[in-house]
């Protein structure tokens, strides 16, 4: 398109699109870093390395360490099931898997709160067995698993469909059993799709706020993840602490973006 | 036995777990989903009707519940309309245009997916709140609700439209242009109808997300009666011990979510260009990990 | 074949990365659990409190207590929020060893509904009250509207910010301050309720907790905030653009504290004793809370209103909560209902 009006409209669109992005995405991102280090390195560093801050970081990482492997194993297994084995119920399973995408995290938190609460269906029984779900780590894990459920499945399914079944067929005619076929043939072929899903899951779990907030009671030093820590600090006028933790989360988010980007290319390559 | 079953069902061969294995796998999946997703939701629905239909209705129609639902729906509609336009524009410039830093821009689009919502809220407040360095103070207002929702829903439309733009056959556009159609007519008559399925799916998903959004709205817009979206309302009901009221409004949001998911499913089937997923009857979420700026790349080492 | 070697190499790289991540997570998880727990003796105290004193506990009281002999080895977890909400959360199962609410009704809930606190908690020193405060009027710097008393709220055209009385204890104190001032001026109960209604009509926002109300006010909501004196002092110390007025007639805010029946002893009782000690009360005073020991109250920092009344004048919180704040039959609930405000948060 070499016409003058073409160039004008090209620049017009560019300004519109990039301007919008600058106002909405870029400015807040820059702001986090600016506000955090406004008064130097010390205030945010102090807040992050406080006992509660470190514990919040550790708790967030713990959520990732538990929820991501669980949803990965489930995700790959479920994807295999959906793509390779036809069954009438597959579309129902598919629909249920999509639910966490569309439900509010507050609704998710409430539903868990009702199920495992003192008046819930499972709460009293578990309490008597000595297992506390709410206001404690197990409940937060369940919430994290719920909200991040779909990602690995969703990313693995298209890849599985795309690679087709010839290699797997070949392997099984050569005498490989199901497990060997999976481990040596299927998994390597889908690994970038799975990896991408894992990165998305990790980002989701790290950033989860609403559902975990309801289920955990946000007890500092016990059930307070990093996002909850941000809110707590903000509520107490500790803006340095709130921004410090936010920067940490923002850095993790940017790392996630980087990983997403790298993996996208690998998946296509 | 493996070889036998593999050759016997040529149309759906591939990794086959032994018959027992498939059943067990299916059972595990169903159990996992039931325990994690379905059982809690069932408890939610059950609680909402604990006082009977009349209590459910009273709770859902209480003045503040209605006020917050109104705000949520209206704000979400405004937001998806705005992001439908801007999302398409951004997708356009990412696919059809070239400028320095395009790859970085493409990566940054996903920021709202990766950034915790509470952090988004905090920085939006710092930027556009009462201590704004640019003099824009919209903190604790309904505008703040809209801005926060714009932030979190931006990627949905962009990522839904991009693949369609990439795959589009340019011949028709070029033919129309050579016949004298203006750029805008080409867009309106040829390009836009092809984008419609992706756009609609992205919009529906963005709408679902906006309806339920919590963290990014919380600090920036606050929980004042006028600026309280439904998710914040539900939260305050929980804190006040009004479990039934919270559950009732949650069920309303849940039904909306389910309807939107159904709509997305229909859209996918209607405008589906990806035969493989259509054949499987599975939905394709507009977030698949395809690289949208470059086409091509070699086949992997297989 | 080249491919197979490449695949194997890549797979081992992936496996190594995965293993490293898991190891990192495990190390962090391990590190944390050893540093965070209360080791020998001591114990773990779960402090559950109303919204405003969080920083006092977290930054001053708990570290100071940990330095004493009774407090060595004790570790804390903190959860603070609107008094009513916190009280309900504890009844719903939230772990608590020491509970500090903003009005006695929220303490009574733990006695009656949860049987978590001893019935005779009021027999503790100072009647079970940890600190005092008063209801003050917080305005923009310079007091542009010239607000000095609760009566000014009625007569002037102002936007008021006060929390929701059905989630926040602070809000109930605010309302009783308005009501009590009218009564002590000689007005009838009906007239006093009218005064409350006028105030609520002018209320632009009713956030969930005292802290939320302060945040809303400092971010530009309304012209005057009804709040605790300690909140106003904190906001001033944080450099917010506000000032506060102690009205000549206002109510004494008494915030109750107790240990729960399952709290780890002797740590919990020792902590309470510390809070009532001179050292503890000094810490409260430094943070803007009035000590319960009258000898420790510096009248320069904490001026004595001419007409300071207490909730006991109206029969105590038991009676007041029933009469005014019952969800359905309370007089304030009725007013809020008329104004279209949610009476459950």
Secondary structure layout:
The complex is a heterotrimer of chains A (269), B (302) and C (345).
Chain A: H1 4-36, H2 42-48, H3 51-84, H4 90-102, H5 105-116, H6 123-128, H7 137-147, H8 150-163, H9 166-173, H10 178-207, H11 210-216, H12 226-235, H13 239-268
Helix pairs in contact in A: 1-13, 2-13, 3-7, 3-8, 3-10, 3-12, 5-7, 5-11, 7-11, 8-10, 9-10, 10-13, 12-13
Chain B: H1 2-8, H2 19-48, H3 52-60, H4 63-96, H5 102-108, H6 111-114, H7 117-128, H8 142-167, H9 170-178, H10 183-212, H11 215-221, H12 230-239, H13 243-270, H14 275-280
Chain C: H1 2-36, E1 43-50, H2 54-67, E2 74-81, H3 83-91, E3 98-100, H4 104-112, E4 129-140, H5 150-155, E5 160-161, H6 169-184, H7 189-201, E6 203-205, H8 210-218, E7 224-228, H9 229-237, E8 242-245, E9 249-259, H10 267-276, H11 278-286, E10 307-309, H12 316-324, H13 331-339
Parallel strand pairs in C: 1-2, 1-3, 5-6, 5-7, 9-10
Antiparallel strand pairs in C: 3-9, 4-7, 4-8, 4-9
Helix pairs in contact in C: 3-4, 6-7, 7-13
Q: What's the gyration radius of chain A in Å?
A: 23 Å
Structural class of chain C: alpha/beta
Percent helix of chain A, as a range, is over 70%
Shape category of chain A: globular
DSSP summary, beta strand count of chain C: 10
**What is the overall shape of chain C?**
globular
Element order, helices and strands of chain A? HHHHHHHHHHHHH
The chain-level structural class of chain A is mainly alpha
- Major interchain interface with per-chain residue totals: A-B, 121 and 111 residues
**What is the number of helical segments of chain C per DSSP (H or I, 4+ residues)?**
13
User: What's the number of helices of chain A?
Assistant: 13
Mean pLDDT of chain A: 89
């Amino acid at each position: 398109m070499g016409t003058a009006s073409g160039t004008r409209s090209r620049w017009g669109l560019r300004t519109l699109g990039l301007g919008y992005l600058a106002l909405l995405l870029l400015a807040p991102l820059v702001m986090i870093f600016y506000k955090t280090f406004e008064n130097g390195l010390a205030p945010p560093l102090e807040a992050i390395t406080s006992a509660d801050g470190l514990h919040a970081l550790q708790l967030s990482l713990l959520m990732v360490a538990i929820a991501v492997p669980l949803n990965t194993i489930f995700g790959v297994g479920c994807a295999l099931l959906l793509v390779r084995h036809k069954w009438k119920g597959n579309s129902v399973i598919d629909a249920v898997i999509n639910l966490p995408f569309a439900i509010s995290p507050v609704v998710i938190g409430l539903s868990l709160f009702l199920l495992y609460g003192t008046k819930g269906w499972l709460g009293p029984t578990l309490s008597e067995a000595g297992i506390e779900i709410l206001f404690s780590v197990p409940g937060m894990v369940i919430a994290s698993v719920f909200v991040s459920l779909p990602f690995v499945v969703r990313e693995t399914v298209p890849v599985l469909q795309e690679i087709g079944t010839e290699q797997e067929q070949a392997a099984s005619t050569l005498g490989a059993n199901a497990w060997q076929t999976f481990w040596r043939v299927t998994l390597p072929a889908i690994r970038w799709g799975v990896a991408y899903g894992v990165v998305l899951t990790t980002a989701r779990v790290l950033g989860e706020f609403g559902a975990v907030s309801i289920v955990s009671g946000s007890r500092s030093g016990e059930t307070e993840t990093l996002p909850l820590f941000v809110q707590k600090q903000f509520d107490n006028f500790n803006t340095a602490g709130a921004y410090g933790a936010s920067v940490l989360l923002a850095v993790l988010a940017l790392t996630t973006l980087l990983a997403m980007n790298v993996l996208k290319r690998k998946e296509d390559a | 036995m493996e070889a036998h079953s593999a050759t016997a069902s040529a149309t759906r061969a591939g990794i086959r777990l032994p018959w027992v294995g498939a059943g067990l796998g299916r059972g595990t999946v169903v159990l996992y989903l039931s325990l994690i997703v379905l059982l809690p939701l069932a408890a939610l629905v059950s609680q909402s009707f604990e006082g009977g239909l009349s209590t459910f209705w009273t709770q859902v129609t209480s003045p503040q519940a209605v006020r917050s639902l109104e705000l949520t729906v209206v704000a979400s509609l405004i937001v998806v309309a705005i992001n439908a336009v801007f999302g398409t524009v951004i997708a356009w410039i990412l696919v059809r245009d070239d400028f320095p830093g395009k790859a970085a821009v493409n990566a940054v689009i996903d920021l709202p997916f990766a950034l915790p919502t509470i952090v988004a809220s905090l920085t939006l407040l710092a930027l556009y709140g009462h201590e704004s360095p640019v003099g824009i103070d919209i903190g604790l207002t309904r505008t703040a609700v809209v801005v926060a929702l714009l932030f979190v829903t931006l990627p949905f439309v962009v990522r839904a439209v991009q693949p369609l733009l990439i795959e589009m056959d340019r011949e028709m556009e070029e033919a129309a242009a050579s016949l004298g159609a203006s750029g805008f007519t080409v867009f309106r008559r040829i390009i836009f109808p092809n984008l419609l399925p992706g756009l609609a799916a992205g919009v529906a998903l963005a709408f679902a997300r906006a309806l339920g959004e919590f963290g990014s709205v919380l600090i920036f817009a606050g929980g004042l009666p006028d600026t309280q979206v439904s998710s914040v309302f539900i939260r305050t009901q929980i804190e006040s011990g009004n479990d039934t009221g919270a559950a009732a409004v949650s069920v309303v949001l849940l039904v909306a979510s389910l309807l939107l998911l159904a709509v997305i499913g229909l859209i996918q089937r209607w405008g589906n260009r990806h035969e493989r997923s259509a054949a499987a009857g599975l939905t394709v979420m507009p977030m698949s990990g395809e690289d949208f700026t470059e086409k091509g790349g070699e086949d992997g080492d297989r | 074949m080249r491919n197979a070697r490449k695949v194997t190499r890549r797979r081992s790289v992936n496996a190594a990365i995965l293993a490293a991540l898991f190891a990192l997570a495990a190390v962090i998880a391990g590190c944390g659990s050893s540093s965070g727990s209360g080791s020998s003796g001591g114990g773990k105290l779960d402090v559950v409190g109303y919204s405003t004193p969080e920083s006092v506990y977290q930054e001053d009281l708990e570290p100071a207590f940990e330095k004493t002999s009774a407090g060595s080895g004790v570790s804390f977890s903190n959860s603070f929020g609107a008094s009513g909400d916190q009280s309900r959360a504890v009844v719903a199962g939230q772990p608590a060893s020491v509970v500090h609410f903003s009005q006695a009704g929220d303490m009574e809930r733990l006695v009656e509904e949860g049987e978590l606190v001893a019935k005779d908690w009021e027999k503790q020193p100072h009647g079970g009250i940890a600190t005092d405060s008063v209801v003050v009027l917080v305005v923009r710097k310079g007091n542009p509207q010239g607000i000095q008393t609760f009566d000014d709220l009625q007569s002037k055209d102002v936007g008021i910010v006060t929390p929701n009385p059905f989630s926040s204890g602070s809000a109930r104190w605010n309302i009783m301050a308005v009501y009590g001032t009218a009564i002590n001026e000689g007005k009838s109960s009906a007239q006093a309720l009218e005064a409350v209604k006028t105030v609520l009509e002018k209320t632009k926002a009713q956030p969930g907790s005292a802290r939320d109300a302060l945040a809303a006010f400092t971010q530009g909501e309304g012209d005057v905030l009804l709040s605790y004196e300690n909140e106003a002092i904190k906001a001033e110390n944080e450099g917010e653009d506000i000032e506060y007025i102690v009205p000549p007639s206002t109510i004494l805010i008494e915030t109750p504290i107790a240990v729960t029946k399952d709290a780890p002893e002797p740590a919990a009782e020792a902590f309470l004793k510390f809070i009532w000690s001179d050292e503890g009360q000094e810490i409260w005073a430094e943070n803007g809370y009035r000590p319960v020991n009258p000898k420790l109250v510096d009248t320069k920092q904490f001026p004595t209103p001419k007409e300071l009344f207490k909730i006991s004048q109206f029969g105590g919180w038991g009676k007041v909560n029933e009469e005014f704040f019952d969800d359905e039959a309370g007089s304030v609930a009725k007013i809020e209902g008329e104004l279209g405000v949610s009476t459950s948060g």
